[in-house]
Amino acid sequence: MPELPEVETIRRGLIKYIVKKKISSVEVFEPKMFIGGSAKDNFGGIVGASIVDVKRYGKCLVVELDNGLSVMIHLRMTGQLIWRGNEEFAAGHPSENFVDELPNKQTRIVLSIGEGKLYFNDQRKFGFFKVVKSSEVLEDSFIKKLAKEPWDMTSEELYGKLQRHAKAPIKAVILDQSIIAGLGNIYADEALFYASIHPERKAGTISEMECAKLLEGARTVMERSIESGGSTMATYVNADGSRGNYLDKFAQVFGRTGETCLRCGEKIVKIRVAGRGTHICPHCQQIDNRGSDD
DNA sequence: CTAGGATCCTGTCAGC
DNA sequence: TGCTGACAGGATCCTA
After folding, report:
1. DSSP reduced 3-state for A120
2. Nearest residue to nucleotide B5 when comparing alpha carbons to its C1'?
3. pLDDT at residue A94, as a whole number
4. pTM for the complete prediction?
5. Which nucleotides of B are covered by protein (CB under 7 A)?
6. Is A19 (CB) below 7 Å from strand C?
7. Do residues A15 and A54 touch, judged by C-beta distance below 8 A?
């Protein structure tokens, strides 16, 4: 679930709390989620190493160590990283885990780092830690396939890619990390609304101008989210138990089914596109597949 | 090559 | 109350 802004929020938090500190022990409750090591080999050799930096490639975090190894972390749908040390920090999929006693039922991996502990919680077990040589991170199959992020990509580049997937719905295309990196279900919906494009439009019918607007939308909605600490950020923890969803502060369509469009007043509708729940304003985002040859 | 659907897994919620 | 199916902020694998 965490998308680029949430992962970036986590990256910034981790930099603050774990860099220069040493990993003193590792606990793995779900072995298949810890790739590249086990208790037998010091968990791939990360025990005893110190953290040098935390990088991010799309939605993947890379914790770089001082011994030539790195730990790749992908949160997938329901992953969370929760730091409990002299200070606390949590981000990822929002849930009670942020304020729970840890470890709990959903805790899969725990790293003891410096004076604190880093908990990896993940309800659905889709996420993972993976130990790799730092020099080989860029060769990892996931990272290798990753496209540029919206800020590094020109509108012409994106337009070119859309032509190669001309018959697929535009939402499916922008969710593909090998086409543009960072968007997930929330920001795809938000970016499409920003550009007034219906998610079922075939990619080949998107004009150059619409493509430019879509790219601008992707940048804008994610920047806005990063500025506020990601849609699931740390202040959720500080909330007084209220089930506040930070998303509400900037989402125009996502999770607003039945509420009124902030642009035109029409009711937001939820449909299904590319197998994903999809939120649109039926007035602002109309289907128009003229130009497709079917 | 692309497009679309199933799949990994647990938990929650709507509807009977 | 208890059961059932749908669905969930992701990515991969398989099939046509």
Report:
1. strand
2. A275
3. 75
4. 0.94
5. 1-11
6. no
7. yes
Give the tens place of pLDDT for each residue, A37-91: 999 999 999 999 999 999 999 999 999 999 999 999 999 999 999 999 998 887 7
Strand ranges across the sheet with A23-28 = A23-28, A107-113, A116-122, A79-84, A88-92
Nearest to A112 by CA among A14, A7, A19, A21: A21
B1 C1' to A164 CA distance, Å: 10
Question: Closest protein residue to B4 using CA and C1' atoms?
Answer: A274
Contact by Cβ (8 Å): A26, A46? yes
Find which nucleotide's C1' atom is closest to A270's CA. C7
Q: What is the mean pLDDT of residues A226-250?
A: 56
Integer distance in angstroms from CA A78 to C1' C1? Answer: 30
C-beta neighbour count of A23 within 10 angstroms = 22
What single letter denotes the amino acid at residue A153?
Answer: M
C-alpha to C-alpha distance for A157 and A162, rounded to whole angstroms: 9
